[in-house]
Amino acid sequence: MKSKLLFLSLFVPIFTQAQVPNTKVGSFDQFLDIGKPKMSGSASYNEPTQTYRITGTGSNIWFAQDSLSFLSKKMNGDFILQTQVKFIGDGHEPHRKAGLMIRSSTAPNSATVVCTVHGDGLTSFQYRTANGAIMKETKMTIKSPDVLQLEKKGNTYTMSVAHFGEIYQTEVLNDIYLGENVVAGLFVCPHTNKFSEEAEFSNTRIFNPAPANLIQYKDYLGSALEIMDIKTGHREVVSNYKGSFQAPNWTPDGNSLIYNQEGILYNFDINSRTAKVINTDFAIKNNNDHVLSFDGKQIGISNHTEDNGQSVVYTLPVAGGVPKRITAKSPSYFHGWSPDNLSLIYTAERNGDFDIYKISKDGGKETQLTKSKGLDDGSEYSPDGKTIYFCSTRTGTMQVWKMDSDGKNQTQLTFDDFNDWFPHVSPDGKWLVFISFSKDVPADKHPFYERVYIRLMPIEGGQPKVISYLYGGQGTMNVPSWSPDSKKIAFVSNGNF
Question: Which of 1.10.3720.10, 2.60.120.200, 3.10.100.10, 3.30.565.10 would CATH assign to domain 12-207?
Answer without folding.
Answer: 2.60.120.200
